[in-house]
Amino acid sequence: MDVTRSVASPSDDIKKAAVFEKDALLSAQTMIYDDGEMKKTLPGDVYERFKAALVDGGATSDEDQEAISKALYAWARERGATDYAHWFFPMRGGSGATGGMLGALKCDAFIDLDWSSDAANKPFKTLFPSGRLYTGETDGSSFPNGGLRATHTAAAFTSWDRSSPCFVYDKVLRIPCAFVTHYGRAIDDKTPLLRSQDAVAREGLRLLKACGVEKEASTMYAYLGWEQEFFVVSADLYKKRPDLVNAGRTLFGRLPPRHQSGDLNYFGATPGPVEDLLIAVQTEMMRMGSPMVVRHNEVAPGQHEMSPIFCVANASCDSNVLFMEVCAKESQKRGLAVLFHEKPFAGINGNGKHANWSVGTDTGLNFFYPKTYGDERDTIYTTALACLSHGLLEYNELVRCSVAHAGNDHRLGAQEAPPAIISLYPGTGFEAHVDKLIGGEGELADYKPEKGKADPRCRAAAAVEANVEDRNRTAPFPFCGNRFEFRACGSSQNCALPMTVCNTLMAAGMAKVASLIEGGASQKDAVVETLKAARQVIFTGNGYGEEWPIEAKERGLPNLKTTPEATAAFASEKNVAVFEAMGVYAPDETHARAEVLYENYTNTLSVEIETMVAMAKTGFLPACAKDLALYAAAPSLAGDKAELYGKIKTACADLEETFAAKPADLAAEATYLCDVCKPKMDALRAAVDAAEAEMDAALYPYPTYEALVYGHHF
Fold first, then answer.
1. Bridge partners of 137?
2. What is the pLDDT of residues 520-552, one digit of tens each?
3. pLDDT of the residue at 350
4. Which residues pair with 173 in a beta bridge?
5. In terms of CB atoms within 10 Å, which end of the chain has fewer, N or C?
6. Rounded (10°) CA dihedral 384, 389, 394, 397
7. How far is CA 75 from CA 68, 165, 289, 642, in A?
């Protein structure tokens, strides 16, 4: 069988569905209406106008809308779709969102009344109702909106993101959409991302024109390749843990004697039940056009990672939200549950979502790939990093804000993820290049991507070509050969906000350098001036080192350790101004987003506190009483258990009382929950976990860590 041909011919592939279930490669891309499918199913002139509109933003005529709708309807029906849905992405934040929570959709059947009938009760017929592909309307007040919507001003609209392909999933044609209010204000994660991509294109082309480079380019793109980490546990055990069900993470629990000690898990063989799940997810995602290329065991027991090949950032963000939903659905079929929380278990590694980001032209020039061309393009890498350095320094707090939520506070700076200090790691070789330029030596194009050899020094294995720069896993923004990896993203959040901020600061940096050149400076002088001003954001040392926070402070780099600290800076005057200048957020949208960040944090902490108190009162304290009763005939054997268990009651009452005194103001409440309530939560947990070590194992009221991380492996 010609596998390549079968992948390229979805109609033939679908006839072989029974075979495809066994081979993810044969069914790949059969459920996505991508560029190839559009070209096959649309009239040539309609297809060309649609493609042009993706570059120039032009409207699609009513006639072309009708032609595209008819073609898409026929294509979807061939694949068994009976419904369609506008799929959009409310500002729901992270901190333990389960699969499906980050997206929103309402399914409508492919039917409408037969308006040609003269009957009072008209029959219906199957079709794609006119205009429904492009727009929809719903209630915006029931989604997080930061005050931009209210019950008496609730209208909101969905608009097809034409640059993110439609696909069929579970017999529903999904149409990725932007989501805005009656007045066009963004109340979602996608719309600002799309605007930020426009900013990258606009300011990137402006910079290229100023530099006299890549004159053939007509647009630019931001790209994203995500790496999603997650835990897999038994669904039965999951349902017996109120903290997992309500908070997405365990609020109590002790590690088993063997956890990630000994480095036995990373890249180890995946347990059979989990491997079956990962293959099913990979197959389903590939059917819908996401090139899921990697799956492997992660560092902690029960932890895994999957990732696709990169694509344009908005489509990539969509595929990540879809991936989380597919994981949830496929795990349910197998008696498993997937945990996307940043810290499901204390004491072992948590989950991140590394965002591999780059920007480049439609002609193939990657701004973050230091390739030697032998012409003026050799200057672009250094120029681009000057722009990035400027953006990271000038809007440093904004980058931290983009990954600020309650779950991620457990990761950042915890020796498993980058610190909360945002710096740029371009590699030691490029750092030396920067210092030479600042010192008046060399040219922009002098940085050469020379790769050494890693030689195993044995006959059987050949020498390996090494990277241009070494890898630094302690950096929040390290260079990775042809991209930068934003390593601070939380696993349960939508990638869209971090990508929106990265695009915005890059666009601002490109605008900065372009304006200097347009003002009369040479390209080199503009770049060197920008690098000199932003030099302190470049750091190539150990981000986990105790000395780094001290040095960072001396450099003037913020260290916003908690979400309330970071959120307070989101809507600062400087950040409001850059969002407005780049056309990403209007001022009221920026303030609304800050309010949503606060709301997400306070809601998360409130749920956790209420869950902790309930578990202590209804689970742990009764178990303690039963355990003490076992020693009625031999009280000397009980030791200090009565005192130990009493600490649980005291800590629980203390937490409950403290929580009840929280202030009403949203920002003040967030700070209070963080600074006052969280230490009380830690105290209650410490008391309960100490009791677990002494209690009769049969009386412990919930599944243990050992059962959760290992129980589904067999």
1. 157
2. 999 999 999 999 999 999 999 999 999 999 999
3. 93
4. 84, 168
5. C
6. 120
7. 10, 13, 15, 69
